[in-house]
Automatic annotation (TrEMBL):
InterPro entries xrefs: Cupin_2, Flavonoid_dioxygenase-like, RmlC-like_jellyroll, RmlC_Cupin_sf
Residue stretches making up the Cupin type-2 domain: 32-96
Matching PANTHER family: LIGAND BINDING DOMAIN PROTEIN, PUTATIVE (AFU_ORTHOLOGUE AFUA_6G14370)-RELATED, QUERCETIN 2,3-DIOXYGENASE-RELATED
Organism from which the protein derives: Kribbella koreensis
One Pfam short name: Cupin_2
Protein's name in the database: Cupin type-2 domain-containing protein
Length: 116
């Protein structure tokens, strides 16, 4: 059992800030913070993602839809789907769950889970 203190708390770092808080063989979890008015410049990931909005408000944009998001919302983004948080109107903090674990690599690079 692990207790992750501070997970989901907004960290005021510019322009945005991701903190990896736990990594296991099958998943990882971290907190992503985006201050008001800042731009989310992330690239698509090789991992499936679940976001849990802990604080703040913004809009999540994907090729298929646009969603206003706020505290308590849970969002699923499949691996390799382009997505971006825009119009951050309140400091945004998200718990982010990746499966398999996030590697921090560009989607065109080999992923450790793909190794035979």
């Amino acid at each position: 059992m692990h207790k992750i203190s501070g997970a989901g708390e907004f960290k005021h770092e510019l322009p945005s800030h991701y903190v990896d808080q736990l990594t296991t063989k099958s998943l990882s979890v971290g907190t992503y913070s985006i201050p008001v008015g800042e731009t989310d410049d992330q690239q698509p990931h090789r991992e499936d993602e679940i976001y849990v909005v802990t604080t703040g408000r913004a809009t999540l944009v994907t090729p298929s839809r646009t969603e206003l998001i706020g505290p308590g919302d849970v969002l699923f983004v499949p691996a390799e789907e382009p997505h971006r948080f825009v119009d951050v109107t309140e400091d945004l903090a998200l718990l982010v769950f990746f499966a398999p674990p996030y590697t921090g690599r560009h989607p065109d690079l080999p992923h450790p889970a793909d190794a035979s």
